[in-house]
Sequence to fold (1110 residues):
Amino acid sequence: MSAPFRLEGGGRIDRTRTLHFTFDGKPYAGFAGDTLASALLANGVHLVGRSFKYHRPRGIVAAGSDEPNALVSVGSGPRFTPNLRATQVELHDGLVAQSQNHWPSVNFDLGALNDLFSPLFPAGFYYKTFMWPKSAWKRFYEPKIRAMAGLGHAPTLPDPDSYAQRYAHCDALIIGAGPAGIAAALAAEAHGARVILCDEEAELGGSLLAERKGIIEGKDASAWLADAVAKLRQSPKVRWLSRTTAFGYFPHNMLGLAERMTDHLAAPADGRPRERLWQVRAKEVVLATGALERPLVFPDNDRPGIMLAGAARQYLTRYAVKPGSRAVVATAHDEAYRAALELAAASVEIAAIVDIRQDMPGPWAARARAAGLRVLPSTTLCATSGRHRVSRVEIAPCGSDGKIGARSRLDCDLVLMCGGFTPTIHLFSQARGKLRFAEKLNAFLPDGGAENLRCAGACRGIFGLESAIADGVAAGEAAARDAVGGRVEAVHAPVPLSEDGGGGRLEPLPNHRSPHRVKAFVDFQNDVTAKDVKLAVREGFRSIEHIKRYTTTGMATDQGKTSNMNALGIAASALDKPLPTVGLTTFRMPYTPVTFGAFAGSARGELFDPVRVTSTHEWAKVKGAVFEDVGQWKRARYFPVKGEDMQRAVARECQAVRQSVGLFDGSTLGKIEIVGPDAAEFMNRIYVNPWTKLEPGRCRYGVMLREDGSILDDGVVGRLAADRFHVTTTTGGAVQVLNHMEDFLQTEWSGLDCWLTSTTEQWAVIAVQGPESRKVLERLVEDIDLSSAAMPHMSVRQGHICGVPTRLFRVSFTGELGFEINVPADYGRAIWEAVFDAGFSRRITPYGTEAMHVMRAEKGYIIVGQDTDGTVTADDVGLSWAIGKAKKDFVGKRSLARPAMTDADRKQLVGLLPENPELVLEEGAQIVADRQSAIGQKMIGRKMMGEKMIGHVTSSYFSVALGRGIALAMVAGGRRRMGETLCVPMPEGVIKAVVTNPVFLDPEGKRLDA
Amino acid sequence: MLLIDCPFCGKRPELEFRYGGEAHIARPDDPSEFGDKAWGQFLYGRSNQRGMHAERWRHVHGCGRFFNALRDTTNDRFAATYKIGEERPALPEAQGAVEA
Ligand SMILES: [Zn+2]
Fold:
């Protein structure tokens, strides 16, 4: 297969390596060194996709990461990847690529009807058209719009590749390996700096890769580049990263780089990561990110075959591809002349150079004329035609007043456009650098940064090869000096800014047609036209941030690389305001899209989040336990036997505890050891409870508040000695509570002499609960008298169980006689099994968190975070008895005296019994006072609900012990309402429930001493 | 990611730290002497500084210590970090100035 548009010689491709690939199922061939875009152009393929909104035929516009149109899907099966820029997809043998956003084919696309109906799709059409009726949005508009508009399809299979992540430090990170970046890297290295140089392309060189005639330091540009790259590769101080996009600039000179490692290979070696995410902390950063050429805005400027002049030059010189046979060049800048001359030299016929400018101050127009090219100053391009490829343009003379003269037609198959250059300041702006608008350049330039960075070359408005190199040298030296220290003298000065290069044009080219009928595209990827931007201004939008969102200009995956400045120019002139006052939209990371895989790295599957298991986890697994996630913990929820469902298993487990004895793993409870001469004083200040008089060997249920008076956490505390407390917290609150305690100890009461140590992981906790629990433990505990007289409820003893040291608590979260055995975690499984064996004859039953929840609710014990939220005080949940009234101060005390905290209508904890005992209320359900408001709530909606809602259900279960559904609820003035019937409106109807004491079972607590 | 200079450990990445809100809001020795308004101000009133902000950090995944820092909220640069109990360091005028 011969590619018809490939030149005989030249380019940086390897003609000895032919690569075969398919595009939309059709086979083609290219060479090593090609991108998908250059290989398609070599084969004469310009139509590569359909546009987002109007489904217009689109071709290749650019040659790099700024490409807005040529988004393709690559690969198949699990490696299918949508929305890749064909200009950045490196060709490899066997590559399979598809165009996107069309049905049934890119040549015949039904969605193109959108283009005919485009008057229906003005700016903001989503907001205007689909407002009513509300239900139609969900049923009709949204699915249709989603199906019609859109880019490639998401892959459907799990990603089979792995992704690596690395951290790196360096003296100078240099971003962009064009002439300025390479010069900076060489200079920084020569001055002793450790350098990282990265570039998004496969080859280092940037614009030098398409440089034909330039001479650098007396050498041919390509020879200079080869020498420079060899030098950098040999230096032990330089790490160079190609195919690596610096996508984000984070505070304190931390940059994110995404390195693509295998996508360019036909057969990646197994186990090699597909991408590598670098997090680089650089002492100094040099941004040498270059500038992007701007399209011109003229009617139907989006036909395939219309491309940026610089892109055409790149295809010609770097890839030896003729992008067409007969070209019209439309320009507002000198740079297009260079492209015209080089294309002409490669025997592309130049029909005309159409320059909107009256004067061309530079030497280029004269050079073009000398080469025999037809140069037309003060001329506009006012129309194009051609269905799947541009075939003709209309041009007309145009004065500075915008008046159009007689039109004439030119046949062509290629239109080159150059509207000027936009410095690539994305990373600089992400670093919160300040910008200033350079009038003559029509460009925002870096003007003082917040980070340790400097810009070099075109990204700060320094154009031209010689200047870029000199500027890069100066930046590299200065970076090395600042990073390495005083030993280095920077001898070269940055190149002074010359603004004579020309600013191009930020406004549409004038044309003769009705502005309502013209589509002159500004944002190709999101199908936004000049008309849309003007409409937004007419409709009253003033800020560019609002215009952007209303029209969606600049909001596509290319983030407006080619379109933002044109949109801004059009908006400024429509508003009749100077451009800088209209503002510039915010640059956000990533510079180009980054895969989720790169961010996730190894944090997927089992490694997504650490899993915490207790010492009995494996035992529970063997017993068939069903687990639930509590934070990072896996907790056994219930232990089904013989195919039981949860309800039956929980009923059986509860019954066993109430009638005999149960076994529960409470190891996930947070545990903190508080030790020191001032331990009791610290406890007095942190908890609402008094601690001074608590004797060693006794326990107390402790409640702690935030300073604002709301409950922070609760848990049983054992005093082991005068100066030693064993504190327990909720499972989820452990970290927060320790932080809270450390905060006060370190910052407010640093005079207190005590220490806090987390012991959560050190102790396994085995709860043995039920009337038979003492009898089971008596056989195992050696040196502790378990009798009620010797060890009453709420006491703690230290001794041994099966020879293992233990802290044995007599406590109960079930309402039954109960103990909690604390043993060093390594012994947890052994002691658990010993207890289980010892209880065998009493049918000891392991129970899970669900039964634990039911039993504590039967006793009205709250769970902090379930029955409380950040607004609930101790009194609200009936815990004011715990407060040490004699204490002068504790954290949260003052707040309890604020007027709102003592309001009688505050929500208070109550029990709720549904009138129908079979019913179990839904947790979170709203509560209203009577049936009338329940119905009103349903009919009138949100507002009524806000007025009449008096509470909500916090916990609800079916209690086997009581033979009915029970619930805990927070209800306004709840304690006044005992015996009242309230209503719980549910979708199926209103449920009536009676307010009761929250302690449903054994309110006298007799069972604790069974 | 911020690079934070723990006064006990040296420079460490932000991931190791936990933010602790505005600094130098001392808890009164006897809160009961505070009226409702003053107490409300103590609980919720914060300067929300644009510019140099004195704030608390805890090196929670390191030494565990709380400390104070001066950070310019306009550019995230730290002007100083210092131990709890130490006075807020004086800064040269230009550094402490709030940009208009
Ligand atoms: Zn530290």
Q: What stands out?
A: The helical segments of chain B are 36-44, 93-96.
